[in-house]
Write a structure and sequence with these properties.
The complex is a heterodimer of chains A (250) and B (241). Chain A has 250 residues and is mainly alpha-helical. Chain A is built from 9 helices and 2 strands; from the N terminus they run H-H-E-E-H-H-H-H-H-H-H. Chain A has one domain. In chain A, helix 1 packs across helix 5. The chains are: A mainly alpha (250), B alpha/beta (241). Strand 2 of chain A pairs parallel with strand 10 of chain B.
Chain lengths: 250, 241
Amino acid sequence: MSLIELNLFQLTQKQYYYKLKAYTGMFFTMMIVQVSALLLSFGGVSGMSTSSNNMIISTDVYSGEAVIILTLIWAFVTGVQLTANVIRDIDFAFVSNRISSQLSTIGFMLTLAMVASIAATLMSVLLRVIMYLYTGSSVAADSNFLITPVELLISLIAIFLYITLLMSIGYWFGMLSQKSVFLKVLLPTMFFGLLFLEVRNDSGVSIIGDTFHFFVDERSLLVFSIKVIVSVIVLLGSAILLTNRLEVRK
Amino acid sequence: MTLLAPILLILLILIVRFAFSNMSKYLRRSKMTWMLGAYLVILLSSVVVYYLLPDNSDQAPIAITEQDIEQALLTEHNIYKAGETGEFANIFSSEGVYKNGHWTFRYDGDELFIVDLNTATDGAYMIIEQDQTNRATIEVNSYKTRTIVNGMDLTDKVIEPEVSLSNGSLIFTGLDRVRIERFQFKKDFTLLQFSKQYNQQNYRNDMLRHQTVFGTQLLHIRVPGNVQIQEKTFANVYYIK
Protein backbone atom coordinates (compact mmCIF):
# COMPACT_ATOMS: atom_id res chain seq x y z
CA MET A 1 0.00 0.00 0.00
CA SER A 2 1.45 3.31 -0.97
CA LEU A 3 1.74 6.33 1.30
CA ILE A 4 -0.73 8.32 -0.81
CA GLU A 5 -3.40 5.62 -0.50
CA LEU A 6 -2.92 5.54 3.27
CA ASN A 7 -3.32 9.31 3.47
CA LEU A 8 -6.40 9.20 1.33
CA PHE A 9 -7.88 6.54 3.59
CA GLN A 10 -7.08 8.48 6.76
CA LEU A 11 -8.42 11.68 5.30
CA THR A 12 -11.60 9.98 4.14
CA GLN A 13 -12.03 8.41 7.57
CA LYS A 14 -11.60 11.77 9.29
CA GLN A 15 -14.14 13.42 7.02
CA TYR A 16 -16.53 10.51 7.46
CA TYR A 17 -16.53 10.80 11.26
CA TYR A 18 -16.91 14.55 11.00
CA LYS A 19 -19.95 14.16 8.74
CA LEU A 20 -21.42 11.56 11.04
CA LYS A 21 -21.36 14.11 13.86
CA ALA A 22 -22.25 17.19 11.85
CA TYR A 23 -25.29 15.69 10.09
CA THR A 24 -27.15 14.10 12.96
CA GLY A 25 -30.07 16.11 11.62
CA MET A 26 -30.37 13.73 8.67
CA PHE A 27 -30.88 10.76 11.00
CA PHE A 28 -33.31 12.85 12.99
CA THR A 29 -35.33 13.73 9.87
CA MET A 30 -35.46 10.02 9.06
CA MET A 31 -36.87 9.36 12.50
CA ILE A 32 -39.53 12.05 12.10
CA VAL A 33 -40.48 10.68 8.66
CA GLN A 34 -40.73 7.11 9.97
CA VAL A 35 -42.73 8.03 13.08
CA SER A 36 -45.14 10.07 10.90
CA ALA A 37 -45.50 7.08 8.59
CA LEU A 38 -46.18 4.82 11.55
CA LEU A 39 -48.95 7.14 12.69
CA LEU A 40 -50.40 7.03 9.16
CA SER A 41 -50.22 3.23 9.23
CA PHE A 42 -52.59 3.05 12.20
CA GLY A 43 -55.37 4.03 9.81
CA GLY A 44 -54.76 0.81 7.90
CA VAL A 45 -53.68 0.44 4.28
CA SER A 46 -57.07 -0.83 3.22
CA GLY A 47 -60.38 -1.86 4.64
CA MET A 48 -63.45 -3.65 3.47
CA SER A 49 -66.88 -4.37 4.75
CA THR A 50 -69.06 -7.30 3.71
CA SER A 51 -72.55 -8.04 4.86
CA SER A 52 -75.27 -10.61 4.41
CA ASN A 53 -78.69 -11.01 5.99
CA ASN A 54 -77.23 -12.22 9.25
CA MET A 55 -73.66 -10.99 9.33
CA ILE A 56 -71.62 -7.81 8.95
CA ILE A 57 -67.88 -8.25 8.66
CA SER A 58 -65.47 -5.37 8.56
CA THR A 59 -61.81 -6.03 7.92
CA ASP A 60 -58.97 -3.56 8.38
CA VAL A 61 -55.64 -4.38 6.78
CA TYR A 62 -52.41 -3.07 8.26
CA SER A 63 -48.92 -2.99 6.83
CA GLY A 64 -45.57 -1.32 7.41
CA GLU A 65 -45.32 -0.31 3.75
CA ALA A 66 -46.07 3.36 4.42
CA VAL A 67 -42.92 3.51 6.57
CA ILE A 68 -40.84 1.93 3.82
CA ILE A 69 -42.22 4.16 1.05
CA LEU A 70 -41.75 7.38 3.04
CA THR A 71 -38.24 6.24 4.03
CA LEU A 72 -37.45 5.75 0.33
CA ILE A 73 -38.63 9.28 -0.44
CA TRP A 74 -36.51 10.53 2.46
CA ALA A 75 -33.54 8.58 1.00
CA PHE A 76 -33.90 10.26 -2.40
CA VAL A 77 -34.16 13.76 -0.89
CA THR A 78 -31.23 13.04 1.43
CA GLY A 79 -29.15 11.91 -1.56
CA VAL A 80 -29.80 15.26 -3.25
CA GLN A 81 -29.22 17.10 0.01
CA LEU A 82 -25.76 15.54 0.41
CA THR A 83 -24.60 17.37 -2.71
CA ALA A 84 -25.64 20.79 -1.45
CA ASN A 85 -22.89 23.41 -1.42
CA VAL A 86 -23.07 23.90 2.31
CA ILE A 87 -22.27 20.22 2.87
CA ARG A 88 -19.54 19.98 0.25
CA ASP A 89 -17.82 23.10 1.56
CA ILE A 90 -17.42 21.56 5.01
CA ASP A 91 -14.90 19.10 3.53
CA PHE A 92 -12.55 21.92 2.83
CA ALA A 93 -12.16 22.69 6.51
CA PHE A 94 -9.76 19.73 6.20
CA VAL A 95 -6.79 19.26 3.93
CA SER A 96 -8.91 17.61 1.30
CA ASN A 97 -9.42 16.65 -2.28
CA ARG A 98 -12.48 15.90 -4.33
CA ILE A 99 -12.02 12.09 -4.11
CA SER A 100 -11.77 11.95 -0.30
CA SER A 101 -14.75 14.28 -0.03
CA GLN A 102 -16.88 12.07 -2.26
CA LEU A 103 -15.72 8.82 -0.66
CA SER A 104 -16.50 10.06 2.84
CA THR A 105 -19.91 11.22 1.63
CA ILE A 106 -20.58 7.80 0.09
CA GLY A 107 -19.50 6.14 3.37
CA PHE A 108 -21.82 8.44 5.27
CA MET A 109 -24.59 7.69 2.81
CA LEU A 110 -24.20 3.93 3.34
CA THR A 111 -24.30 4.45 7.11
CA LEU A 112 -27.50 6.46 6.74
CA ALA A 113 -28.94 3.70 4.54
CA MET A 114 -28.01 1.02 7.07
CA VAL A 115 -29.59 2.85 10.03
CA ALA A 116 -32.68 3.79 8.01
CA SER A 117 -33.17 0.22 6.76
CA ILE A 118 -32.84 -1.27 10.26
CA ALA A 119 -35.32 1.28 11.61
CA ALA A 120 -37.79 0.80 8.72
CA THR A 121 -37.67 -2.99 9.09
CA LEU A 122 -38.21 -2.86 12.84
CA MET A 123 -41.05 -0.35 12.43
CA SER A 124 -43.08 -3.16 10.87
CA VAL A 125 -42.48 -5.18 14.04
CA LEU A 126 -43.34 -2.23 16.28
CA LEU A 127 -46.58 -1.72 14.35
CA ARG A 128 -47.53 -5.35 15.04
CA VAL A 129 -46.73 -5.04 18.74
CA ILE A 130 -48.80 -1.84 19.06
CA MET A 131 -51.72 -3.37 17.16
CA TYR A 132 -51.53 -6.44 19.39
CA LEU A 133 -51.74 -4.28 22.49
CA TYR A 134 -54.46 -2.09 20.99
CA THR A 135 -56.79 -4.63 19.39
CA GLY A 136 -56.16 -7.64 21.60
CA SER A 137 -54.56 -10.97 20.99
CA SER A 138 -56.92 -12.00 18.17
CA VAL A 139 -54.85 -9.99 15.69
CA ALA A 140 -51.96 -12.40 16.24
CA ALA A 141 -54.10 -15.20 14.83
CA ASP A 142 -53.71 -13.73 11.34
CA SER A 143 -51.08 -15.67 9.41
CA ASN A 144 -49.44 -12.47 8.15
CA PHE A 145 -48.92 -11.23 11.70
CA LEU A 146 -45.95 -13.53 12.07
CA ILE A 147 -42.61 -12.46 10.64
CA THR A 148 -39.86 -15.01 11.07
CA PRO A 149 -36.27 -13.86 11.79
CA VAL A 150 -35.28 -14.99 8.27
CA GLU A 151 -38.05 -12.86 6.77
CA LEU A 152 -36.88 -9.92 8.86
CA LEU A 153 -33.37 -10.37 7.49
CA ILE A 154 -34.60 -10.60 3.88
CA SER A 155 -36.69 -7.47 4.39
CA LEU A 156 -33.74 -5.66 5.97
CA ILE A 157 -31.44 -6.47 3.05
CA ALA A 158 -34.10 -5.49 0.49
CA ILE A 159 -34.86 -2.19 2.21
CA PHE A 160 -31.15 -1.41 2.54
CA LEU A 161 -30.65 -2.01 -1.17
CA TYR A 162 -33.69 0.09 -2.13
CA ILE A 163 -32.57 2.96 0.13
CA THR A 164 -29.01 2.84 -1.22
CA LEU A 165 -30.34 2.88 -4.77
CA LEU A 166 -32.68 5.83 -4.12
CA MET A 167 -29.95 7.75 -2.29
CA SER A 168 -27.54 7.14 -5.15
CA ILE A 169 -30.09 8.36 -7.69
CA GLY A 170 -30.66 11.46 -5.56
CA TYR A 171 -26.91 11.95 -5.22
CA TRP A 172 -26.42 11.57 -8.96
CA PHE A 173 -29.18 14.12 -9.69
CA GLY A 174 -27.69 16.47 -7.10
CA MET A 175 -24.12 16.22 -8.39
CA LEU A 176 -25.21 16.70 -11.97
CA SER A 177 -27.21 19.75 -10.93
CA GLN A 178 -23.98 21.19 -9.55
CA LYS A 179 -22.52 21.18 -13.06
CA SER A 180 -24.75 23.95 -14.31
CA VAL A 181 -27.81 25.99 -13.48
CA PHE A 182 -29.38 24.67 -16.68
CA LEU A 183 -29.22 21.06 -15.44
CA LYS A 184 -30.52 22.14 -12.05
CA VAL A 185 -33.76 23.17 -13.73
CA LEU A 186 -33.80 20.57 -16.49
CA LEU A 187 -33.36 17.39 -14.39
CA PRO A 188 -36.31 17.83 -11.98
CA THR A 189 -38.46 19.13 -14.82
CA MET A 190 -37.64 16.08 -16.93
CA PHE A 191 -38.18 13.69 -14.05
CA PHE A 192 -41.56 14.99 -12.99
CA GLY A 193 -42.61 15.67 -16.59
CA LEU A 194 -41.93 12.05 -17.49
CA LEU A 195 -43.68 10.90 -14.34
CA PHE A 196 -46.83 12.83 -15.25
CA LEU A 197 -46.70 11.58 -18.83
CA GLU A 198 -46.30 7.96 -17.79
CA VAL A 199 -49.07 8.19 -15.23
CA ARG A 200 -51.40 9.52 -17.91
CA ASN A 201 -50.17 6.62 -20.04
CA ASP A 202 -50.98 8.19 -23.39
CA SER A 203 -47.46 9.01 -24.45
CA GLY A 204 -46.02 5.55 -25.06
CA VAL A 205 -42.89 6.65 -23.16
CA SER A 206 -42.08 4.49 -20.18
CA ILE A 207 -38.53 5.17 -19.01
CA ILE A 208 -39.39 5.55 -15.32
CA GLY A 209 -41.91 2.69 -15.48
CA ASP A 210 -39.44 0.29 -17.12
CA THR A 211 -36.68 1.24 -14.68
CA PHE A 212 -39.12 0.72 -11.80
CA HIS A 213 -40.13 -2.73 -13.07
CA PHE A 214 -36.49 -3.67 -13.71
CA PHE A 215 -35.97 -3.65 -9.94
CA VAL A 216 -39.43 -4.33 -8.49
CA ASP A 217 -40.22 -7.38 -10.65
CA GLU A 218 -37.00 -9.16 -9.72
CA ARG A 219 -37.84 -12.20 -7.58
CA SER A 220 -34.30 -13.34 -6.78
CA LEU A 221 -32.63 -11.44 -3.94
CA LEU A 222 -29.19 -12.27 -5.32
CA VAL A 223 -29.96 -10.96 -8.82
CA PHE A 224 -31.70 -7.94 -7.29
CA SER A 225 -28.60 -7.23 -5.18
CA ILE A 226 -26.37 -7.45 -8.26
CA LYS A 227 -28.69 -5.11 -10.19
CA VAL A 228 -28.68 -2.57 -7.35
CA ILE A 229 -24.94 -2.79 -6.65
CA VAL A 230 -24.06 -2.36 -10.34
CA SER A 231 -26.51 0.54 -10.68
CA VAL A 232 -25.14 2.22 -7.53
CA ILE A 233 -21.54 1.83 -8.77
CA VAL A 234 -22.50 3.30 -12.16
CA LEU A 235 -24.43 6.18 -10.58
CA LEU A 236 -21.83 7.09 -7.95
CA GLY A 237 -18.89 6.42 -10.29
CA SER A 238 -20.31 8.64 -13.00
CA ALA A 239 -21.18 11.31 -10.44
CA ILE A 240 -17.56 11.31 -9.20
CA LEU A 241 -16.11 11.35 -12.71
CA LEU A 242 -18.46 14.03 -14.02
CA THR A 243 -17.94 16.37 -11.11
CA ASN A 244 -14.30 15.76 -10.36
CA ARG A 245 -13.38 19.03 -11.98
CA LEU A 246 -15.90 21.18 -10.16
CA GLU A 247 -14.58 24.31 -8.55
CA VAL A 248 -13.55 23.80 -4.92
CA ARG A 249 -15.89 26.55 -3.73
CA LYS A 250 -18.37 28.64 -5.64
CA MET B 1 -56.49 9.48 -8.67
CA THR B 2 -53.32 8.20 -10.32
CA LEU B 3 -52.53 11.75 -11.45
CA LEU B 4 -52.47 12.74 -7.81
CA ALA B 5 -49.57 10.37 -7.12
CA PRO B 6 -46.81 12.54 -8.65
CA ILE B 7 -48.28 15.63 -6.96
CA LEU B 8 -48.28 13.81 -3.65
CA LEU B 9 -44.70 12.73 -4.31
CA ILE B 10 -43.59 16.31 -4.97
CA LEU B 11 -45.34 17.46 -1.80
CA LEU B 12 -43.68 14.74 0.26
CA ILE B 13 -40.26 15.60 -1.15
CA LEU B 14 -40.77 19.26 -0.30
CA ILE B 15 -41.90 18.41 3.24
CA VAL B 16 -38.88 16.16 3.86
CA ARG B 17 -36.53 18.74 2.39
CA PHE B 18 -38.08 21.51 4.50
CA ALA B 19 -37.92 19.34 7.62
CA PHE B 20 -34.21 18.70 7.06
CA SER B 21 -33.22 22.31 6.50
CA ASN B 22 -35.10 23.52 9.57
CA MET B 23 -34.42 20.72 12.02
CA SER B 24 -31.03 21.93 13.22
CA LYS B 25 -32.41 25.42 13.83
CA TYR B 26 -34.80 24.18 16.52
CA LEU B 27 -32.95 21.30 18.15
CA ARG B 28 -29.46 20.96 19.53
CA ARG B 29 -27.36 18.04 18.31
CA SER B 30 -27.07 16.44 21.75
CA LYS B 31 -30.85 16.44 22.11
CA MET B 32 -31.25 14.90 18.66
CA THR B 33 -28.71 12.19 19.50
CA TRP B 34 -30.60 11.32 22.69
CA MET B 35 -33.91 11.15 20.87
CA LEU B 36 -32.42 9.00 18.14
CA GLY B 37 -30.92 6.68 20.72
CA ALA B 38 -34.28 6.33 22.47
CA TYR B 39 -35.93 5.68 19.10
CA LEU B 40 -33.56 2.85 18.25
CA VAL B 41 -33.88 1.36 21.76
CA ILE B 42 -37.69 1.32 21.40
CA LEU B 43 -37.41 -0.34 17.99
CA LEU B 44 -35.01 -3.00 19.23
CA SER B 45 -37.11 -3.63 22.34
CA SER B 46 -40.18 -4.12 20.16
CA VAL B 47 -38.45 -7.09 18.50
CA VAL B 48 -37.92 -8.74 21.90
CA VAL B 49 -41.55 -8.04 22.92
CA TYR B 50 -42.81 -9.26 19.54
CA TYR B 51 -41.13 -12.66 19.81
CA LEU B 52 -42.37 -13.03 23.39
CA LEU B 53 -46.02 -12.50 22.44
CA PRO B 54 -48.11 -15.63 23.00
CA ASP B 55 -48.83 -17.81 19.98
CA ASN B 56 -52.48 -17.34 19.09
CA SER B 57 -52.60 -19.42 15.95
CA ASP B 58 -55.22 -21.66 17.62
CA GLN B 59 -57.59 -18.67 17.64
CA ALA B 60 -57.35 -18.23 13.90
CA PRO B 61 -60.54 -18.86 11.93
CA ILE B 62 -60.30 -22.16 10.07
CA ALA B 63 -58.53 -21.65 6.77
CA ILE B 64 -60.37 -23.20 3.84
CA THR B 65 -59.37 -25.03 0.69
CA GLU B 66 -60.63 -24.91 -2.89
CA GLN B 67 -62.66 -28.08 -2.17
CA ASP B 68 -64.40 -26.31 0.74
CA ILE B 69 -65.38 -23.46 -1.58
CA GLU B 70 -66.66 -25.87 -4.23
CA GLN B 71 -68.68 -27.83 -1.67
CA ALA B 72 -70.14 -24.65 -0.13
CA LEU B 73 -71.17 -23.34 -3.56
CA LEU B 74 -72.70 -26.71 -4.47
CA THR B 75 -74.72 -26.74 -1.24
CA GLU B 76 -76.04 -23.22 -1.92
CA HIS B 77 -76.92 -24.27 -5.47
CA ASN B 78 -78.81 -27.34 -4.22
CA ILE B 79 -80.81 -25.24 -1.75
CA TYR B 80 -81.68 -22.75 -4.48
CA LYS B 81 -82.82 -25.61 -6.73
CA ALA B 82 -84.86 -27.11 -3.91
CA GLY B 83 -86.54 -23.73 -3.51
CA GLU B 84 -87.56 -23.89 -7.17
CA THR B 85 -88.84 -27.46 -7.07
CA GLY B 86 -90.07 -27.63 -3.49
CA GLU B 87 -88.02 -30.82 -2.95
CA PHE B 88 -86.34 -30.21 0.38
CA ALA B 89 -86.45 -33.79 1.67
CA ASN B 90 -82.79 -34.55 0.97
CA ILE B 91 -81.43 -31.11 1.76
CA PHE B 92 -81.43 -31.36 5.56
CA SER B 93 -79.21 -34.44 5.59
CA SER B 94 -76.93 -33.38 2.74
CA GLU B 95 -73.26 -32.53 3.07
CA GLY B 96 -72.54 -28.95 4.14
CA VAL B 97 -75.86 -28.52 5.98
CA TYR B 98 -75.48 -28.40 9.77
CA LYS B 99 -78.21 -28.57 12.39
CA ASN B 100 -77.86 -25.76 14.91
CA GLY B 101 -81.13 -25.83 16.81
CA HIS B 102 -84.05 -28.08 17.72
CA TRP B 103 -87.28 -27.19 19.52
CA THR B 104 -90.54 -29.07 20.16
CA PHE B 105 -93.75 -27.59 21.46
CA ARG B 106 -96.96 -29.24 22.56
CA TYR B 107 -99.80 -27.65 20.57
CA ASP B 108 -103.42 -28.61 20.17
CA GLY B 109 -104.83 -25.43 18.68
CA ASP B 110 -106.51 -25.15 15.28
CA GLU B 111 -104.65 -22.07 14.04
CA LEU B 112 -101.02 -21.10 14.20
CA PHE B 113 -99.42 -17.74 13.48
CA ILE B 114 -95.74 -17.77 12.53
CA VAL B 115 -94.12 -14.42 13.13
CA ASP B 116 -90.63 -13.08 13.44
CA LEU B 117 -89.51 -10.06 15.41
CA ASN B 118 -86.73 -7.69 14.35
CA THR B 119 -86.50 -9.30 10.91
CA ALA B 120 -85.22 -12.37 12.74
CA THR B 121 -85.52 -14.72 9.77
CA ASP B 122 -84.66 -12.26 7.01
CA GLY B 123 -83.32 -14.17 4.02
CA ALA B 124 -83.77 -17.58 5.62
CA TYR B 125 -85.61 -20.49 4.02
CA MET B 126 -88.66 -21.40 6.11
CA ILE B 127 -89.95 -24.83 5.13
CA ILE B 128 -93.31 -25.62 6.68
CA GLU B 129 -94.25 -29.25 6.57
CA GLN B 130 -97.72 -30.36 7.58
CA ASP B 131 -97.78 -34.03 8.45
CA GLN B 132 -100.90 -36.12 8.59
CA THR B 133 -100.31 -37.67 11.99
CA ASN B 134 -102.12 -34.94 13.94
CA ARG B 135 -99.81 -35.67 16.89
CA ALA B 136 -100.36 -32.26 18.55
CA THR B 137 -96.67 -31.34 18.42
CA ILE B 138 -94.82 -28.58 16.63
CA GLU B 139 -91.24 -29.42 15.83
CA VAL B 140 -88.73 -26.79 14.68
CA ASN B 141 -85.26 -27.57 13.38
CA SER B 142 -82.76 -24.91 12.43
CA TYR B 143 -79.95 -25.58 9.98
CA LYS B 144 -77.14 -23.53 8.57
CA THR B 145 -74.71 -23.94 5.73
CA ARG B 146 -71.07 -22.91 5.68
CA THR B 147 -70.27 -19.22 5.84
CA ILE B 148 -66.90 -18.46 4.29
CA VAL B 149 -65.75 -14.85 4.25
CA ASN B 150 -62.46 -13.82 2.67
CA GLY B 151 -61.15 -17.36 2.85
CA MET B 152 -62.04 -17.92 6.49
CA ASP B 153 -64.70 -20.28 7.79
CA LEU B 154 -66.96 -18.22 10.03
CA THR B 155 -69.81 -20.77 10.25
CA ASP B 156 -69.39 -20.96 14.04
CA LYS B 157 -70.15 -17.25 14.33
CA VAL B 158 -73.64 -17.71 12.89
CA ILE B 159 -75.94 -18.12 15.86
CA GLU B 160 -79.25 -19.98 15.91
CA PRO B 161 -82.55 -18.10 16.31
CA GLU B 162 -84.62 -18.21 19.47
CA VAL B 163 -88.00 -19.84 19.06
CA SER B 164 -90.96 -19.68 21.40
CA LEU B 165 -94.64 -20.57 21.32
CA SER B 166 -97.04 -18.15 22.90
CA ASN B 167 -100.82 -17.71 22.57
CA GLY B 168 -101.04 -19.58 19.31
CA SER B 169 -98.00 -17.83 17.81
CA LEU B 170 -94.71 -19.42 16.94
CA ILE B 171 -92.26 -16.54 17.41
CA PHE B 172 -88.73 -16.27 16.04
CA THR B 173 -86.49 -13.78 17.80
CA GLY B 174 -82.86 -13.15 18.65
CA LEU B 175 -81.39 -13.23 15.22
CA ASP B 176 -79.73 -9.87 15.07
CA ARG B 177 -77.00 -9.44 12.53
CA VAL B 178 -73.67 -10.68 13.88
CA ARG B 179 -70.98 -8.02 13.72
CA ILE B 180 -67.45 -9.24 13.26
CA GLU B 181 -64.48 -6.89 13.24
CA ARG B 182 -61.29 -8.36 11.90
CA PHE B 183 -57.73 -7.07 11.73
CA GLN B 184 -55.39 -8.43 9.13
CA PHE B 185 -51.79 -7.75 8.27
CA LYS B 186 -50.24 -7.51 4.86
CA LYS B 187 -46.60 -8.42 4.52
CA ASP B 188 -44.38 -5.64 3.20
CA PHE B 189 -43.60 -5.61 -0.53
CA THR B 190 -39.88 -5.83 0.24
CA LEU B 191 -40.55 -9.24 1.71
CA LEU B 192 -43.17 -10.50 -0.75
CA GLN B 193 -40.92 -9.62 -3.69
CA PHE B 194 -38.38 -12.25 -2.63
CA SER B 195 -40.67 -14.79 -1.05
CA LYS B 196 -39.72 -18.00 -2.87
CA GLN B 197 -43.17 -19.51 -2.97
CA TYR B 198 -44.95 -16.26 -3.70
CA ASN B 199 -45.87 -17.14 -7.25
CA GLN B 200 -47.34 -20.48 -6.29
CA GLN B 201 -48.50 -20.85 -2.69
CA ASN B 202 -49.03 -17.17 -1.87
CA TYR B 203 -50.93 -16.54 -5.08
CA ARG B 204 -53.19 -19.51 -4.25
CA ASN B 205 -53.70 -18.20 -0.72
CA ASP B 206 -54.41 -14.72 -2.05
CA MET B 207 -57.08 -16.13 -4.34
CA LEU B 208 -58.64 -18.05 -1.45
CA ARG B 209 -58.51 -14.95 0.74
CA HIS B 210 -60.92 -13.28 -1.65
CA GLN B 211 -63.50 -16.08 -1.68
CA THR B 212 -66.77 -15.39 0.09
CA VAL B 213 -69.80 -17.66 0.34
CA PHE B 214 -72.48 -16.48 2.71
CA GLY B 215 -74.33 -19.41 4.16
CA THR B 216 -78.06 -19.92 4.28
CA GLN B 217 -80.29 -20.54 7.25
CA LEU B 218 -82.98 -23.16 6.96
CA LEU B 219 -85.91 -23.39 9.37
CA HIS B 220 -87.81 -26.63 9.11
CA ILE B 221 -91.15 -26.44 10.90
CA ARG B 222 -93.33 -29.55 11.26
CA VAL B 223 -96.91 -28.74 12.11
CA PRO B 224 -99.88 -31.10 12.58
CA GLY B 225 -101.90 -31.41 9.39
CA ASN B 226 -105.12 -30.13 10.91
CA VAL B 227 -103.67 -26.74 11.91
CA GLN B 228 -104.41 -23.66 9.81
CA ILE B 229 -101.25 -21.62 9.30
CA GLN B 230 -100.75 -17.92 8.78
CA GLU B 231 -97.32 -16.42 8.63
CA LYS B 232 -95.85 -12.95 8.80
CA THR B 233 -92.19 -13.36 8.20
CA PHE B 234 -89.24 -12.01 6.23
CA ALA B 235 -88.17 -15.53 5.35
CA ASN B 236 -88.77 -17.28 2.03
CA VAL B 237 -91.64 -19.60 2.91
CA TYR B 238 -92.17 -23.02 1.31
CA TYR B 239 -94.97 -25.45 2.17
CA ILE B 240 -94.54 -29.18 1.98
CA LYS B 241 -97.67 -31.26 2.21
